[in-house]
Amino acid sequence: MRAPVAKRVMVIPIHDEIAEPALYILRRGLKEAIAQHDDVVVLDLKTPGGAIDVTFQMMEALEKFPGLTIAYVDNEAMSAGAFVSAVTSEIWFAPQGVIGAAAPVTGTGQDVDATMKQKLVSYLKARMRAISEGKGYRGQVISAMIDADAELKIDGQELKPKGELLSLTATEAMKPYGHPAQPLLGAGIAPDLDALLTRKFGPAGFTRVNLTATWSEELAVVLNRAAPVLMGLGLLGLFAAFKLGNFGLIGFGGVGLLVIVFLSHYVAGFSGHEPIILFALGLLLLALEIVFFHTAGFLGIVGVALILGSLLWSMADLWPNEPITVAWSADAFARPLLNLGLGVVIAAALGAALLRFLPSGWLWDRMVIGAAIGGSAQSASEAPGSGARLDALIGLRGVAATALRPGGQVEVAGRRYEAAVALGHVEAGAAVVVRGRSDFGLVVERAEA
Q1: Residues 392-437: pLDDT tens digits?
Q2: Nearest-CA neighbor of 207 among 409, 4, 22, 349?
Q3: d(CA 21, CA 33)
Q4: Domain locations along the chain
Q5: How many angstroms separate the Cα of 414 from the Cα of each of 346, 375, 393, 398?
Q6: Ranges 35-39, 138-142, 306-310, 358-362, most confident
Q7: CA 159 – CA 151 distance, rounded (Å)
Q8: 370-446 matches 7-210 in CATH topology
Q9: What span, in angstroms and rounded, lies between the C-alpha atoms of 114 and 256?
Q10: What is the pTM of this model?
């Protein structure tokens, strides 16, 4: 007889206050679990509650996981923690676990305005009923935790009078009611997670992976809020490197800032590895344009486009195996587009302010028609006398300031000029001889030793 396949279990810690770091941990863990085809996700809950808006996002994220979800109330799942628990398939308790008291409050813990509170309570109760269908008394119990004015009676027994919020211990949550009898809220009591999983799947029936929560989630909150500024400064660094025609410290600094943006989005559970690959490809094309090839900016422009696209992709909340019509919707990219737009505006504004102070490089000048650095060649239609000055250079020796493939720049008599070779190519630093001129610069060839 074939042995049953062990269940793959992902354990995600939801500890302390429910705020953005907890959302980042949950979202990252769920996406990893989906991508790895895990069968079960267990939430290790030790939370006094938290922000209601973050709670809604966590509830929506949990509903995207296709497998079994289990809330393990290890210590407490109060207020917002009760809402998160209500979305899961099963709620288990540690022996001293407590759940309940889920009335909506402000982010600072103060009571909500009476009218707004009434609307929130009504919405939350309806939401809890909807997600609790087919889960026994869960809808009624969670509603009694939300609404102090509601009364909870089961089998004629009053479990909560009006005027107070319901909270349950592990024992109370497991007390059976009804015909046939079923626990009030819990699926079981277990001293720890291993005992829970052993009871569910057997001693050898599961493989467990723990998602590690670190200080990086706290840092990611700050970095994501500053993402437009970091992107703006990073893009400004790339622009400066592109204009100077030299990657250097400025270019690497820009790349470093953009990498920080990527890492913060990864920790936040937005970005996977794919946007980083696209970013690396764009960066490679930009570097090739600056350092090796001279395509009048074509490769650089494509590289920048790929970099911008990768940044947009990294900020979108896309889920593994989600239908493309849902994943690539306008809602998924609304906030990323706003952040990227702000970043581009910041980069453009600072770039315009600094443009006059940045020395020009050969790459930038080749992108401007007729532009030249320090007296570079003019076209035949330029100011009178320019042709005679260029004719006077014919026969003189110079040095290839950049590689000529076939175009680039040469230095003759202490000045730089646009130039091209008629055949082949010349590497940077090689000696050249001026053999003529064209409408766009000098015509040179490699000088004989």
Answers
A1: 888 899 999 888 878 888 999 888 888 888 888 888 889 999 988 8
A2: 4
A3: 18
A4: 7-210, 216-364, 370-446
A5: 38, 10, 12, 9
A6: 35-39
A7: 8
A8: no
A9: 49
A10: 0.66
Strands of 22-163, DSSP E = 40-47, 68-78, 90-93, 98-100, 152-154, 157-160
Residue type, 26: L
For 111, phi then psi, to 5°, come to: -65, 145
Q: How far apart are CA 293 and CA 403, in angstroms?
A: 8
The pLDDT tens digits for 274-304 are: 788 888 888 888 777 766 655 556 777 788 8
The CATH architecture of the domain made up of 7-210 is Alpha-Beta Complex (3.90)
402-411 long-range Cβ contacts below 8 angstroms, 24+ apart? 402/294, 402/362, 402/428, 403/292, 403/294, 403/427, 403/428, 404/432, 404/444, 405/293, 405/294, 407/294, 407/366, 407/441, 408/294, 408/362, 409/362, 409/373, 409/376, 410/434, 410/442, 410/444
Which two three-digit tokens encode residue 152? 């909870």
Per DSSP, helices labelled H in 361-429 are 362-366, 386-391
- Check: CATH 3.30.565.10 for 370-446? no
d(CA 59, CA 297): 47
Q: What sections of 88-204 are H helices per DSSP? A: 114-131, 138-146, 170-174, 193-201
- What is the rounded distance in angstroms from the CA atom of residue 318 to the CA atom of residue 185? 33
Whether the bond between 180 and the residue before it is cis, its omega within 30 degrees of 0, is: yes
Structure tokens of 96? 């001293």
DSSP string, 191-246: SSHHHHHHHHH-TTSEEEEEPPP-THHHHHHHHHHTHHHHHHHHHHHHHHHHHHT-
Nearest in space to 83 (alpha carbons), one of 161, 149, 3, 141: 141
